[in-house]
Design goal:
The structure holds two protein chains of two kinds.
Chain A (H helix, E strand, L loop, with lengths): L8 H7 L10 H15 L6 E4 L3 E4 L11 H14 L12 H10 L10 H5 L11 H9 L5 H5 L3 H8 L1 H10 L16 E11 L2 H21 L2 E12 L4 E12 L2 H14 L10 E13 L9 H20 L4 E6 L9 E5 L25 E13 L6 E6 L2 E14 L13 E8 L4 E7 L10 E7 L2
Antiparallel strand pairs in A: 1-2, 3-6, 4-5, 4-6, 7-8, 9-10, 9-14, 10-11, 11-12, 12-13, 13-14
Helix pairs in contact in A: 8-9, 10-11, 11-12
Chain B lengths: L1 H12 L3 E4 L1 E4 L4 H6 L4 E2 L3 E6 L5 H16 L3 E7 H7 L1 E2 L1 H6 L7 E6 L2 H12 L4 E7 L9 H14 L2 E7 L10 E7 L12 E9 L5 E8 L4 E3 L5 H10 L1 H8 L1
Parallel strand pairs in B: 4-9, 4-10, 5-7, 5-8, 8-9
Antiparallel strand pairs in B: 1-2, 2-3, 10-11, 11-12, 12-13
The chains are: A alpha+beta, B alpha/beta.
Chain lengths: 460, 251
């Protein structure tokens, strides 16, 4: 069949009458490429997309793990081909040369330093040049990369611009152009390849521990500890699962790393599915930070702090950082905005101090429990701007015995889009000793004629 | 009640722990402390119930005050279910502060279900650096059975961290708890004004002693329980220099 890419459809149909035509679906193609890229991650974390249908892998230091460059190249090609995909691949000392070779001489392995030689015979279309440049080169009679390379740089730059020269130099291995990986590269990593794919939880746990040991040794040499860790599980059938944990402070203890991942894996809504087994597990420090090595002489209070930080990390690994919180004071007198609950792992000391509102020997002025949405109530009051006498909340009637207030709280107009009514708060005790925090929304007469009432919280 | 009042006052002036097999912490209320034979046992499981969920505020406040007593200066882990926040209100930092509990000492864990509350409580109780773990479990989930409560009790004993199980709108079931309290709000002691937090606390189960019921008032400034005082200001003023007079008044 003489079909080729970019051929007009009519020509193809003329050649093969029974041709089945399918609309191009770029989004699906893109997804497939991303999945292949994910799978390639098992060879190196440095995988870059090379649109439209290419992938670039930086395999520096990798081939010896796979029995050399030739074995690596053949392995990748065979594995992808097995999925029913057409694949072309090449290895070279730089991205431009590797790309050119892959497209034109599938399966080439360019010896280090011999890139110029390897690509010399390729047509100039193998390089990513714009159409004007290609046209110009053709007119000048330069049909192969070798022919272009033989011209002086000054000559080429004058005719085609500096950019084109830079590209040629990159392909020849005379200059370097960085490629950007799909995922941020880890600060450091450790990995475990299994000849026999692993399935059992205990082997996975053991492997996380030994990876933790390797990783912490690297971190130790650098004087660092990990704040965020990612474990990637590569299934033999190509699926990749990444699980992340975060810590409140720099961490360098393999046992704790193992324990935190244990918590996280245990709590996954969608559990880790080994299928026919994982053939690679990688542990990377996604974020590392300077590690203060004072741990040798911890006093008791430091020890307690450590223990609590570890507890917080464990709980956050299991329930999620957003569910393990500590309180921090905010600069507002609006009750619901006076403090915030923020992830305990990220808590930093603030300049704002907690301030008790009640005077010494005075009863609490804020409720112990507060409703995120104040609940509307029916209220009977002697006068519209007076304290409540009776109220009904959640179908239960309450007779007010004591009412303290009002404490008038004006909304902070500069924070809101719409002006909010002023609230008059009352601390109210009913005849059974239950204590509530109620407010009348809006000043009677001035802001509203029919003020509404709400329960905002309950006191101890 | 003169003698009891006097001893309570001594305790109040110098809160101390009596070590008698297990460490105990005086609550400050003479009647309760006598019944508990020297205070609440640390490193054990205690349950606080509000049968009637309209008394949820009082019951959670009572638990917070117990935690303040047993935890000394240590941090607290407060675990609550999402349902609990919707139904009874979210724990409020300024409200904790007004009860005398520095919000920075509290780590709040929000969980989706009762199983997660128990799990988090187990983790917390293993951490000896904590002063207490307060776990809220509303209604009666199946998972909270005798075995689960035994587990909490053991975990509490092992690391010496006190466990307080807060059961709002729930009926009690078999459990391994050291004590069980049923709490309702109580009227302010003074007719005129809104007084200190007051609890009608019923001790319905006590593995090492009698049961009883009392009205207990919480002194925010002293961080201790006391008998409801007719005039809080006078008692507070008297505490510093004339203990005997205050004792008579309290009695």
């Amino acid at each position: 069949m003489n079909l080729r890419v970019d051929m007009p459809l009519a020509d193809a149909r003329a050649m093969i009458s029974s041709l089945r035509v399918v609309e191009a679906d770029e989004a699906t193609d893109q997804k497939l490429i991303e999945r292949i890229a994910d799978w390639c991650d098992r060879y190196t974390p440095f995988v870059a997309l090379d649109p439209p249908h290419g992938l670039l892998l930086d395999i520096t230091g990798v081939p010896q793990l796979f029995g050399g460059e030739r074995a690596l190249l053949d392995g990748v090609r065979a594995a992808i081909a097995k999925q029913g995909l057409a694949v072309k691949a090449a290895i070279a000392g730089n991205a431009a040369a590797a790309r050119a070779l892959a497209h034109h001489v599938d399966g080439t392995l360019a010896e280090p330093g011999a890139e110029a030689e390897a690509i010399a015979a390729l047509p100039i279309t193998a390089l990513r040049l714009d159409s004007d440049t290609l046209h110009g080169l053709k007119r000048a009679g330069l049909k192969t990369i070798g022919a272009v390379a033989s011209r002086t740089r000054a000559e080429l730059a004058k005719r085609f611009g500096a950019e084109m020269v830079a590209l040629i130099d990159c392909a020849l291995g005379k200059a370097e152009k960085p490629i950007s990986p799909r995922r941020p590269l880890p600060d450091c990593m450790a990995e475990h390849r299994f000849a026999e794919p692993v399935v059992t939880e205990s082997v996975i746990a053991d492997s996380l521990l030994s990876l933790g040991k390797t990783l912490t040794t690297i971190l130790e040499k650098r004087g660092e500890g990990a704040r965020a860790l990612i474990a990637s599980f590569y299934r033999a059938d190509g699926a990749v699962r990444r699980i992340g944990i975060e810590t409140g402070k720099a961490l360098r203890d393999p046992l704790i790393i193992q324990k935190l991942f244990g918590e996280r894996l245990d709590a996954l809504a969608d559990p880790l599915d080994p299928g026919f087994g994982f053939d690679l597990i990688r542990l990377e420090a996604a974020r590392a930070e300077r590690f203060d090595a004072q741990s040798a002489r911890l006093d008791e209070s430091d020890n307690a702090k450590e223990e609590i930080a570890y507890l917080i990390d464990r709980l956050a690994a299991r329930f999620g950082p957003q569910r393990v919180l500590s309180f921090c004071p905010l600069n507002s007198h609006i009750p619901e905005a006076a403090s915030a609950a923020i992830p305990a792992q990220y808590t930093k000391p603030t300049k704002i101090a907690w301030q008790r509102l009640s005077a010494p020997n005075e009863a609490p002025r804020r409720p112990l429990r507060m409703f995120a949405r104040p609940e509307p109530i029916e209220v009977m009051a002697e006068v519209p701007d007076g304290p409540p006498l009776r109220f009904r909340w959640r179908r239960l009637a309450h007779a007010v015995n004591r009412a303290e207030g009002p404490e008038r709280i004006a909304m902070e107009w500069w924070r809101q889009q719409e002006p909010q009514p002023t609230r008059d708060y009352y601390r109210v005790e009913d005849d059974e000793g239950r204590r509530f925090w109620l407010y009348r929304d809006g000043l009677y007469g001035r802001e509203t004629d029919r003020p509404r009432w709400y329960v905002h919280g309950v006191f101890a | 009640m003169g003698d009891a009042g006097l001893s309570a006052l001594r305790n109040l002036l110098s809160p101390q722990e009596l070590v008698e097999g297990q460490a105990r912490v005086l609550l400050g209320h003479a009647g309760t402390d006598a019944c508990l034979k020297g205070g609440l046992i640390k490193g054990a499981l205690h349950e606080v119930f509000a049968f009637d969920s309209s008394h949820a505020g009082a019951a959670s406040g009572f638990a917070a005050c117990l935690a303040l007593r047993v935890a000394a200066k240590k941090k607290l882990l407060w675990i609550r279910q999402d349902f609990s926040a919707l139904e009874f209100g979210e724990l409020c930092a300024t409200g904790l502060l007004e009860l005398g509990l520095d919000p920075e000492r509290v780590i709040l864990v929000r969980t989706a279900d009762a199983a997660s509350v128990l799990r988090a409580a187990g983790e917390g109780l293993a951490c000896a650096a904590l002063g207490a773990v307060i776990a809220e479990i509303p209604s009666e989930p199946k998972i909270l059975d005798l075995v689960a409560s035994r587990r909490l009790n053991f975990a509490a004993a092992r690391a010496g961290v006190t466990a307080l199980l807060v059961r709002l709108g729930a009926e009690p079931d078999a459990s391994a708890a050291e004590t069980r309290w049923v709490v309702r709000g109580a009227q302010s002691a003074n007719d005129e004004e809104w007084g200190a937090p007051a609890f009608a606390a019923e001790l319905v189960r006590n593995r090492h002693g009698e049961t009883g019921d009392w009205v207990m008032e919480w002194s925010v400034d002293h961080g201790i329980f006391r008998e409801p005082a007719a005039d809080t200001r006078a008692v507070a003023a008297a505490l510093g220099d004339r203990p005997a007079a205050a004792a008579r008044r309290a009695g």
